[in-house]
Amino acid sequence: MNLRVDWRASSSLVGTVVKWLAVAMVFPLALAVFYGEGVTTFLASMALAVGIGWGLEQLDDDPDLGAREGFLMVALTWLAVSIVGATPYVIAGEGTVAHPVNAMFESMSGFTTTGATVMKNIGFEDHSRALMMWRQQTQWLGGMGIVVLAVAILPELSVGGAQLMDAEAPGPGIQKLTPRIAETARALWRAYLGITALEVVLLFSLHLAGLAPNMTLYQSVAHGFTTMATGGFSPAARSIEAFSAAVQWLIVPFMVAAGTNFALFWHALNGEPEVFGEDTEFRFYVGVLAVFSGLLAVLLFTGGTAEQAAVSPLAGEFEKSLRHAVFQVASLVTTTGYASMDFNTWGSPAQYVLFVALFVGGSAGSTGGAIKIVRWLVILKSLKRELFTTIHPEAVRPVRLGGRSLDERAVRGIYAFTLLYFVIFFVATMVVYLDAARVGMDLVALDAMSATAATLGNVGPGFGLVGPMNNYIPFPASTKLFMVFLMWIGRLEILPVLVLLTPAYWQS
Amino acid sequence: MRVIIIGAGEVGSSIAASLADTHEVVVVDVDGERVDALTYSEDVLAIQGDGTSISTLREAGIDEADMMIASTDDDETNLVACGTAKTVDDPFTIARVKNVDYLETWQHAADRTAFGVDFMVCTNLLTAQDIVRVIGLPAARDVDPFAGGTVQMAEFEVGESSPVANQTVSEADRFDSLTFAALLRNGDVEIPRGETVIRADDKVVVIGSPESVQEFAHEIAPRETPSRNEDLVIIGGSEIGYHTARLLEERGLHPRLIEHDHDRARELAEELPNTVVMENDATDAEFLAREHVDEADAVVAALESDEKNLLVSVLAKQLGAHRTVAVVESGEYVSVFETVGVDVAVNPREVTAEEITRFTRELHTENVALIENDKAEVLEVEVDDESVLVGRPIREAVADLPEGFIVGAITRDESFVVPRGDTVVEPGDHVVVFVDRDALEAVTEKL
What we know:
Radius of gyration of chain A: 22 Å
Family (chain A): Belongs to the TrkH potassium transport family.
Protein name (chain A): TrkH family potassium uptake protein
Subcellular location (chain A): Cell inner membrane
Shape of chain A: globular
Strand content of chain B: 25-35%
Structural class of chain A: mainly alpha
Oligomer: heterodimer
Helix content of chain B: 25-40%
GO biological process, one term (chain A): potassium ion transport
Domain RCK N-terminal (chain B): 1-121, 229-346
């Protein structure tokens, strides 16, 4: 069969990225040295990364990427990086994540900033500090994007870089901020790094001020890594519940920032802070957060409805209701997946509000997953137009977004993506059910649906069985591998991966 | 530096591609699809908008831009875009025009800032110059124009039978206003002195006026160089055809020009005293045979459409014409034309893009040609009061400069000055110098 895709060129560049992953492992290695935890795990993983990367690079010594090769390179990069990123868990051999399938799940969940875990005993009893930090760091690397980072530092990717970033970046299309794509990539990473550093400093300052006894420097860095990435992993078993109210309040704005289009921060840093007020998507995003939070706060404060089995434990507590409502909405809308308390104990109406939040997603160009605010905005506006043209069939009304009219093809693409997202969600839920039935596992509807939505949308925790204080261990290995696939396509917004599965892609 | 390019057509895209690796490039075009295509194909920032509007230019960052290149297909748009840019800030502006009248207007203005344009490139004129180089100096391996065409540099290979073979440079130097700039021997660059002997198989680089270069070419390669009695036929009295004929006349040649429109033919005949203008349809094979186009040394097809140019070139070739040169408006056809038997296909857009790129690369040294893969460079420098050359004979100035440097030509107010040892250089002169790679930095500093 004559392949029309130069897979060698794509694989070679994937190799380059994998090779550089060894550099990222220097940080946990240094921690291992610092805490005296033995260095073999990360040294072996680094050697493996360099070996595999070098091996792949040999496939093509002068790779030249076309449009098709770009898709393949981005999709394979995420797969390869997740596989290599799983090796420390396996080599360390600590707890449930040592099993190869679980390690792969944990690694993919990390890089795709999902935050779904198969680590049974989260904490430092079973796991080394270095490994726990690697788990956090994978999320940080995946947040702004591995390929974006690669474009920022590898000159050989600058020419096709725009297309590569387009395949990886959340939301429809990319915004070039500067003439050079590598400079754009660097600007995004700088903003990302800067806000992460700010969060770490503030979290640790709370600790020093005596307002957050558990928020040590290690914990500050660990949570800085996963907040800005909308990740959701935490070295603490009880997630953010383990920390004080002050910490919870502080993390909220950073989650909101992580779900914001990073191009806005870049503009703001260049002396145009008014972009936040002008950007339609940002305004809508803040509005969505406010409405959901308000709704949830009322539900929690009033204690939900009478027929519930579990009465909300927050009834009548104003500050707590508000704090947990705001925190949980920000956490799930941005697809971070932190928990300030176990929302499995909340009433069904409150849980259902959160379930809807799983599909909202962050802004385009943020680190969030799921469908994204901008797409919802376009869908709502075009549905409104549909209603209007029903009354006035001759009306010509372009869909406007912040003063710009959208191309009809762009609108169609957004419809197609959203429909595809839901189709995949329903089919995937069915697959999860069938696989559970195969091994005789008992699944509740909301649990199965939320597990699928939480992995496909890169959120992390769902409800019931996969609630914020639980994990994904009960699922059979086959389901876990299927969820690895879901997280992978969810992070790359489905199409770049799905297109690889079509015969037309591989032929002329 | 930051460069803004208006127009993402063939010329704009090509310039953007050439400059993207060394400069920050922003491209502006009204066509959204072109903008999208460019965003993904080149490492540049592409913006959709009208380059003549201030708001678009601001969005493109005209305030930080060092240069703006207006390269749309529309002359007036380009001029207005440059004028608009000058109202906001003072970037260096380059405009591409087709109409030679605009170029003449611009050259006529003393300070060279008409329309807010700092440098103007005329597509039709450039293309004609290119064609003339191709048919006028077939023996030359490489020809580069300097100082707006008043000075030419050419590289020739000296054959066994060449009259200058085995002569010293001072013996060979019997041409008016021509300087032997360098000898290339076994890949080494040698700056010739009076007693240097020119051997067969050397390559000589000469700098001088177009007439003297033509004369020299005729001397060393008599069989390949067209002379007065050679037969050159231009088909099509387009702007490009007219300027080609005019430039050939300037070189003392007598071309023939075929134009089918009666009024245009009359107009051309009045303008071109040394050209035989014929009024006929050039696709008439019988007419071509009758006029002995089959015996022409070179046939230039400069009609208004690519298809017609292809047809007449192939026709002329089939009749037996020696060389055919065709003007091709769309860049994609160039290789197709050359495949089917047209000897040289000249694409005005490509010529323009190359000229603008070359100009951009070396703003202060106005023009650069590289010899033998960067072993030496030819620079055109505008001399100011600071320069080591000013106000004294060249002979004295050379003493203060390193070896490996020679003054090839001087232009003063658009006219050619022959540089000899006792010539005194004045401020404002354009000096074309030939510099060995090793001496390059030292020389450019002092000039």
